[in-house]
Structures are given as C-alpha cells and as structure tokens.
C-alpha cells in the first residue's frame, strides 16, 4: 500500500514521489516479474501504469459505493466506438500526481515521456463519434454523473494505416498484444447472447426463443477517473467467448479444427472493429456485433437496477440509456423483449418503459450512415426482435392514424416496403429524446431526415452541441500553453473551461503574446521533429502550419485542399521571386478500406507531396506532409502545433466536427464553411478571428435542387482549371497519367460535394490568410482570442446539457 495522507473531500490524497517510486519497483518485480536490470521499456511502462492504476482503484470503489448508496439515476452510454487513445498520462493528470510521477521516474532513471509512448493507442473507434464518447466518459466522471460506458472489446481496433508508394495499405491493429494495464477481466460478469432459431408460445402468455447459436459476453472493466480524481466511472467492454470452450469429443477423434469451430465463431464477433460489410457474411457479422453488445449491456443494466430495486416498472426512475448513433438502436426491441418475455409485461407496458429509458443521438444526416437492415437477414439472426419491431411499427402507425396529422404514413414507417428496417426510425420512435450534435445539424434534422417525426413528436428533438474535454485536449497535450494559462489565470479553467476567457484580456499584452507565441513555436518544433521521424520530411517551424486531420471522406473535401495546394504550387513556380508566406500543409486521416475514391485521394495527396517537396524552385515556400496512421496520439502532437485549422466540408454535411473545437482551443484559426459547429465557433470567436468562405447550407440545397453545372465553373476559372488539368496531365503521376482521371471526371461532371463551386472563394480566402500571417503580433492576438473564446465547447457543458434535457440525472456531488 502506498504511503499517502488522506485529502479533504474532493481533493486528491497526497502521494509522495518516494512512495510512488517504491510502488513502481514493486510492480516491476511482483506484477511484471522483472528485475530492473533486465526490464525493457515496455516492462517499465507496464509497472508504471499498474502503480498509477492502484491510485485510481480505491477512488473507483468509493465512487461505485456512492452511486449505489445515493440511489441516483444512472447513465448508460451504449457505443460501438470508444476512441480512448492512451490512458496513462490522462490518469496521472486527472489525479493530479504528475510531479510525483515525474520525480519517481527520474529517480528510477526512466524517461516519463518515453514511458507514455510505450502504451498502445486504443483505437476502438473510427473518428469523431468514438472520440466524442471518450470525451463524454471523462466529463461524466469529472462532473460526478454516475455512468457506465458500454461497448465492444475488439481484439483489433481500427486498422493501422501505412503508405506503400503513396497508396493506403491497411494492417491489423494490435493494441492488446503486449498486455493491457488498465482493464480488469470480470470472468464472473458474463451474459448469454442468443442468435437465430425459432420462437414458440405456450398459449399462456409465455414466449420461448430456442436459439441456434449462443455466445457468452464477458466484461472487461476500465476505470475512468475524472478531473481531480473526484469520481471514477466504468467503461465496460464486452468480449465474445464460446459457451463451451472446446468440443472434446471431436478433439479426441483427431478432428482438431472442427473441435475449435464454435470458439472461432464466437470470438469472431468481437474480433474486429467495422469488418467489411459489403459481403452477406460481413453484414450478418455487423448485425451480430450490434446485438451482442447491446444485449449484454441491457442485461447488465437490469441486473444492476435489481440489486437496489424490486419494481421493474420503475426502471426509468433510475436508468437513462443513451444510444450513440443507430448502432445500438436494436436496444429498443431488446429492452422490450426482456421486459415482455422475461418479466412478463405486456407489449404496451414494455414499450412505454422502453421509451422513457432510451434516448438517441444522431450524428449524421447522410443516408448511407443511417443504418437499414434487410428484413430477411434480420429475421434470420433475431427472429424475436423482428416480431417486436413489427409490433412497434404497427402500434406506432395506429397511434398516428388516430391523430389526423399532416404526415405521410409511408415516411414514418419503421419497416419500409416490408423489406428494410430503418434503424434511425426505430431509434426515434423508441426514444424519450433525440438529439443532434450542433445547432445547424439539429435544425436540419427537423427539416429533413426526421421532418415527419418532428411533426408527430415536436418536443422530442433537442440540440446538444458537441464538446471536447479540456483535460486531454489542452492540459495534457499542450504543456506550454497550460503553464502559461496557469500562471496567468490559475487553474479554474480546467474545471470550468468558460473561465479561460479570463485570459482574453491578455491578447493585447505584449509579454503574454510573446510567451503564447513561444509555446506555439515549441509545439511546432516538436511536430516538425515528428514529421521528420515519420516521413523523413524536413519542415521549417516558422512556416504557417496548415492542418487538415480527419477521416478521409469526399464531403470533408480534402480534395479541395489538395487542389488549392496544386494551384498554390503552380503560382509559386510561376513567380518564385514574389513574397510568399511559407506554408506547411499537413494532412492526416484514414479512408474506409472499401472507399476507393477516398483511397485514390490519399494517393493524390502523396503524389502531390512528392512533387512539391522535391521541387527546388519551391524550396521552403511550400511543403506537404501526409502523415500515415493518424490517431489520437498523433492528434495530440499535431493539434497544439497548428496555426490554421481546415474545416472545409460541404455546408450541411458535417454534423458538428470536434477537431474544429480542439484546434481552436489550441490557438489555431479556422478556415471553414458555415457547417456543423463551425457556425457556433464563428459566433464565439467573432468574424475577425475566423475565415469563413463558400456556400451556406441553404445555398448548397438550392444549388443541388436547381442542378449544378461544374463545367461552366471550371471553364471560367483558370486557376481551378489549371489545377485539375495538372492532376490529369501526369504532372504528379508521370508513371500513370490516367491515375486521377476518375477524380477529375467527377469534378467535371457531377461534383456532388461542390468542390469546384467553392474553390475560388476558398483560394482567395487562403491568400488573405497568407497576408495576415505575416503580421505575427496580430496573428498571435487572434490566436489567443480563439483559445480564450471557445471555452463553451467543453464536453462538460455538453454533458450538463444531456443531464438536464435528455437524461434527467444529477451529479452525486
Ligand atoms: O458527433 C460526433 C461526430 O460524429 C461524426 O464523426 C459521425 O461519425 N457521424 C460526424 O461526422 C461529426 O460531424 C461529429 O462531430
């Protein structure tokens, strides 16, 4: 047990560096089983993490007891993705033990920073949706909202991206390979999850589901400590295991492969995040994954509830369940199934309880991301749920018919033409609240995808603009800026990010500005070293660092940025003697493995980078860094170093964005369209401190409705035409002139994402950025105003909003 003095309520107990040093040594010997002289960097990192974990565990027990004793309503956050990244530094900072840990490391002769880098980056998510879930875990713990996050413990998270000759290559990610310090396996906490088979009724109200496949969901718990370690919630991830470990009979007959068949089948469910679902097998696996974690979570929620309560009808008083996107939308049918089949409530009773417990967050309006399931597949995998969804559909339509409202019945059906289940509709109908993730997105939800539902249930849709945790996204990743803020305004901003505005008054203070600029410069030097280490490219840290980091997707319009890069390259070549503002364009992002055009755009970025970076005429005026394997850890290095944040999606298509918030908080100025949360960022930082360009969401809708002709736009704009021509004339692909024909053809013929329509406005705005960046003092002043004006985008504020408007929960302290 480590020597520590009890702190006052809400304060971390004090831990001495010497005691901590001894604890690390003890972990190395007794948990890792290594002598210091033989220990590898991984061993030390494991010992360090285990010693820090001990500091979390007692607080965790206390929090769990307090949640049970307080009998407060509990939040259950169901998400296919939790993009948690590395946890060691997060825990150390949140517990307030950084100086002791650093001193202990120094005494042990190990480098703390190097230890941090030994931890694998838990990539259990794809992008914004999964990172949002991780920020929410931090905020719920920080605010003392009793909560569990529920998801899948994938053996392999999001693939590792490598570039081979500039093409994306996907390799399996292996975060579990060298052990995991943060999780506890709960072998006893296991639930059976069934698939397929037949349903029968006994004629006296009982229903039996005879499944033809059953697996076991086993819990793995990770404690998530909030700021100052005041409260610790649990992230519970489910691993899929066979019910019988081995078919010994077959094994003893020498049939080794088929003896292990059931194990392989069961374990496949939690093997990979987002398996390719273009095949029938892939689709079935995806449906099974969604049901697997939803069912296990709901069984667990009910077990927890019944530990302290006995009336299942009062479930909504104690339980708020959030469906993060449509992936867990099967929860509507599963909760009804449990209530009706296991607890013998009638369907109407079960439906009422279900819709008081569940809520749904919509994260996109793009039809391809609103899941639909073929009814034949669904009936095969989940026959009982199919019956329940048919009942919900019928019941809900009947309810509407009686109300004589101006909606089309076809539009509000959950099962479309008898052949597809619309999971967004199921989630909507089965929820107490449905929320969008930015003001614009929520408005568009009401006007488009959920228009008819909004007429039926006008109070159901609410807005909860996304947020980010200031702990990871400033305090931890930007130590220079953190120190400056602590010196200037104390640490109140870490608890309440809106207080960061207290530093706005220093924007015109020369000494503060100088220190702010120095912190930025140090971050840029760190990133420059990282770029060189990763791709061998040397960049000048005093150039403008222009950053676009996000999933590769056509609507995010990396292509617009690349075309502007080409146009700038051509302009510099034409007049190298002119006064250019040196710029480094930094790209990071993965394309979904089956998304061919996005993968080609990655290749284009790499081809352009190769030519630009090796052109002696260009020199340091322009460099292009395309960084492979963008993930949370890399983001933590890029974001603090950015000068310019590219948020250039086609207006109306980015639900919110959260990278935009992280970059602004770290002092980058945004160049962006009026899309997603950019709109709210612009309102807060003011028009002088952001670069807004291009079509609005209304313009986009109007243009698409009238029919857009990219031909005319391209023909009338020589800069744009020059850039597109260079793409297809082999300037960047001398080995294969036709490589980007398809990309260019799309621009000429349809240009659904309106890259060409926004090009000129974007190009001109970038030239204004060039001019503005030369006035370093003024730029820093605006950078400070970005940092200090975006405190509202803390995920603490978002969680307060959910707690009040969506869940009806209160903090336990
Ligand atoms: O709400 C979180 C994020 O979710 C997405 O990443 C998503 O997966 N649908 C959206 O694309 C983002 O706009 C949003 O910020």
From TrEMBL:
Catalytic reactions of this protein: [(1->4)-alpha-D-glucosyl](n) + phosphate = [(1->4)-alpha-D-glucosyl](n-1) + alpha-D-glucose 1-phosphate
Q: Does the keyword RNA-binding apply?
A: no
**Which cofactors does it use?**
pyridoxal 5'-phosphate
Q: Which UniProt keywords apply?
A: Allosteric enzyme, Carbohydrate metabolism, Glycosyltransferase, Pyridoxal phosphate, Transferase
One GO CC annotation: cytoplasm
Q: Which domain of life is it from?
A: Bacteria
Question: Which family does the similarity line name?
Answer: Belongs to the glycogen phosphorylase family.
Per the entry, what this protein does is: Phosphorylase is an important allosteric enzyme in carbohydrate metabolism. Enzymes from different sources differ in their regulatory mechanisms and in their natural substrates. However, all known phosphorylases share catalytic and structural properties. Allosteric enzyme that catalyzes the rate-limiting step in glycogen catabolism, the phosphorolytic cleavage of glycogen to produce glucose-1-phosphate, and plays a central role in maintaining cellular and organismal glucose homeostasis.
UniProt-listed NCBIfam families? P_ylase
Q: What is this protein called?
A: Alpha-1,4 glucan phosphorylase
Biological source species: Pleomorphomonas diazotrophica
**Taxon lineage:** Bacteria, Pseudomonadati, Pseudomonadota, Alphaproteobacteria, Hyphomicrobiales
């Amino acid at each position: 047990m480590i020597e520590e003095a009890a702190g006052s309520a809400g304060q971390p107990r004090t831990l001495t560096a010497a005691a901590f040093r001894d604890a690390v040594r003890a972990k190395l010997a007794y948990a890792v089983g290594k002598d210091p002289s033989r220990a590898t960097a991984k061993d030390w990192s494991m010992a360090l993490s285990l010693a820090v974990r001990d500091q979390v565990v007692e607080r965790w027990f206390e929090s769990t007891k307090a949640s049970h004793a307080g009998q407060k309503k509990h939040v259950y956050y169901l998400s296919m993705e939790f993009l948690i990244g590395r946890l060691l530094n997060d825990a150390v900072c949140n517990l307030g033990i950084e100086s002791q840990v650093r001193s202990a490391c120094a005494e042990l002769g190990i480098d703390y920073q190097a230890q941090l880098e030994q931890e694998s980056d838990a990539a259990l998510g794809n992008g914004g949706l999964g990172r949002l879930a991780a920020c929410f875990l931090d905020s719920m713990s920080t605010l003392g909202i009793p909560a569990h996050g529920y998801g899948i413990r994938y053996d392999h998270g999001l693939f590792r991206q490598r570039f081979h000759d500039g093409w994306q290559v996907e390799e399996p990610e292996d975060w579990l390979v060298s052990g995991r310090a943060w999780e506890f396996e709960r072998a006893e906490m296991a639930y059976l999850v069934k698939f397929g088979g037949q349903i029968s009724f006994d004629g006296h109200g009982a229903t039996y589901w005879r499944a033809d496949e059953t697996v076991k969901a086993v819990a793995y718990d990770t404690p998530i400590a909030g700021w100052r370690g005041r409260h610790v919630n649990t992230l519970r991830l489910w691993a899929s295991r066979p019910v019988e470990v081995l078919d010994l009979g077959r094994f003893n007959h020498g049939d080794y492969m088929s003896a292990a068949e059931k194990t392989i089948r069961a374990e496949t469910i939690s093997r990979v995040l987002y398996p390719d679902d273009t095949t029938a097998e892939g689709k079935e696996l995806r449906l099974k994954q969604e049901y697997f974690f939803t069912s296990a979570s709901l069984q667990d929620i009910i077990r927890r509830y019944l530990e302290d309560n006995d009336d299942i009808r009062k479930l909504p008083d104690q339980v708020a369940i959030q469906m993060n996107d449509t992936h867990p939308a099967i929860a509507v049918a599963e909760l009804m199934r449990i209530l009706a089949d296991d607890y013998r409530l009638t369907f109407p009773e079960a439906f009422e309880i279900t819709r008081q417990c569940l809520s749904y967050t919509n994260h996109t309006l793009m039809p391809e991301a609103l899941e639909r399931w073929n009814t034949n597949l669904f009936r095969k995998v989940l026959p009982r749920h199919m019956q329940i969804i048919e009942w919900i559909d019928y019941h809900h339509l009947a309810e509407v018919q009686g109300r004589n409202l101006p909606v089309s019945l076809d539009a509000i059906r959950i099962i479309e033409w008898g052949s597809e289940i619309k999971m967004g509709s199921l989630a909507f109908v089965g929820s107490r609240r449905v929320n969008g993730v930015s003001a614009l997105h929520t408005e568009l939800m009401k006007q488009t995808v959920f228009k008819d539902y909004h007429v039926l249930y006008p109070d159901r849709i609410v807005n909860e603009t996304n947020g980010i945790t200031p702990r990871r996204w400033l305090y931890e990743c930007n130590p220079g800026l953190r120190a400056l803020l602590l010196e200037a305004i104390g640490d109140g901003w870490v608890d309440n990010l809106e207080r960061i505005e207290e530093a706005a008054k220093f924007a015109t203070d020369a000494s503060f500005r100088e220190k702010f600029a120095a912190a930025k410069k140090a971050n840029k030097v760190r990133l420059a070293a990282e770029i060189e280490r990763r791709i061998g490219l040397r960049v000048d840290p005093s150039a403008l660092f222009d950053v676009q980091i996000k999933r590769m997707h056509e609507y995010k319009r990396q292509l617009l940025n690349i075309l502007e890069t080409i146009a700038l390259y051509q302009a510099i070549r034409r007049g190298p003697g002119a006064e250019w503002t040196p710029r480094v364009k930094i790209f990071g992002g993965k394309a979904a493995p089956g998304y061919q055009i996005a993968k080609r755009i990655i290749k284009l970025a790499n081809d352009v980078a190769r030519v630009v970076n090796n052109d002696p005429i260009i020199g340091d005026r322009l460099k292009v860094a395309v960084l492979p394997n963008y993930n949370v850890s890399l983001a933590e290095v890029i974001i603090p170093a950015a000068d310019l944040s590219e948020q250039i999606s086609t207006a109306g298509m980015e639900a919110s964005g959260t990278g935009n918030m992280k970059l602004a908080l770290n002092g980058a100025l945004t160049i962006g369209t009026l899309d997603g949360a950019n709109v709210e960022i612009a309102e807060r930082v003011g028009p002088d401190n952001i670069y807004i360009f291009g079509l609005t969401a209304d313009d986009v809708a109007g243009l698409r409705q009238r029919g857009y002709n990219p031909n005319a736009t391209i023909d009338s704009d020589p800069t744009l035409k020059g850039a597109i021509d260079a793409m297809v004339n082999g300037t960047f692909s001398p080995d294969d002139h036709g490589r980007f024909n398809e990309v260019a053809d799309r621009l000429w013929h349809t240009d659904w994402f309106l890259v060409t329509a926004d090009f000129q406005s974007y190009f001109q705005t970038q030239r204004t950025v060039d001019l503005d960046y030369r006035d370093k003092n003024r730029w820093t002043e605006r950078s400070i105003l970005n940092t200090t004006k975006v405190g509202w985008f803390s995920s603490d504020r978002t969680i307060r909003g959910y707690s009040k408007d969506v869940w009806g929960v209160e903090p336990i302290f």
